[in-house]
Design goal:
The protein has 343 residues and is α+β, with helices and mostly antiparallel strands. Helices cover 23% and strands 31% of the residues. The chain has helices at residues 136-144, 149-152, 160-164, 189-195, 263-293, 307-329; strands spanning 3-4, 13-17, 20-26, 32-36, 50-52, 55-57, 63-65, 71-74, 90-93, 96-99, 124-132, 168-172, 175-185, 201-210, 214-223, 232-244, 247-256.
Length: 343
Amino acid sequence: MGAWSDEVGRTLLQRWILGRPVCFYRLQDGGVTAVEDRCPHRRYPLSLGRLDGDVIECNYHGYRIDAGGVCVGVAEQPDTPKAAVHRFPLVERDGVVWIWPGDAGLADPALIPDTGWLSDAGWTHVKGLVPLKARQVLLAENLLDLTHETFLHPSSIGNAAVAATPIDVTSEGNRVSFTRHMVGIEAPPFYEKSMGLTSPIDRWQDGDFYAPGVFVLNIRLAPTGTEEPEGFHMKVLYGMTPATETETHDFFALGRDYEIDDAELSRFQLEQQLAVMQEDIDALEVQEVMVATEPPGVRESSIRSDVAGIRGRRLLEKMAAKEAAAAEAAPARERPRAAVAGA
């Protein structure tokens, strides 16, 4: 994920992705473009320039860069320098701007996970973006092992039932999936307040991690004994986009298919989602320090609930190794810039 659609307008937006500065902006026809945020002249950020139609004029020496990244003029001379910056492939869908930072020839929109519920009239959602000062893989593992809800979020979405209920894990291609169906359990505080549920309830968590950086959690809550499709349904989307090796853009959306016109409920759910995420952020940023300073050779302990997280980590490692090997094998003039490890 590069941005939410409503973040990108006629104001130049800089966002670091995989250690590279990207300049997003919306064209006059409503489309979106993104170019490397370094002027080809003296590397000044193009995002600090100004838009003239669909052309960025650099605020340092007046180089003019069009929506495709090509220099189309300069203020100081009549002839146009042969210069350009990289233009990133983009897809805008369901209110999300997806970016492909690698080889443009490998960009495949079919790889984008289904997020149709973000634009489905039968659903409503709250969304946002929070910065995380930790490597992306730590967030991926956090989401793939929701056992931590019992211990990290006991006042909102967690209780003893989460850790006490085992998960089933499957893997296919670049996806790791898990299911945890809790039956006849106590309703956590968040669901009591936002749905009026009283215990006992059934609570389902069905999660899908689409490597390298998208996680979707499908949630069903209902009084014990009711059958699907009865009950309350929610979806949580996380877009985990590395800014650098140790910083991550944590995009999120929390959707529901009930009381979709209740603005006060949306406000409450956004407030609660941000509170839960802050608890995760605090934990992950401390974990980042521990991981970064750990001496080599220390053995990690794991348990049954770690299966999905470990599979997700190994999948990222496998994808990064494959990409690195391909880059090493390419002729020097074709080699792409080094990608962030694990991205």
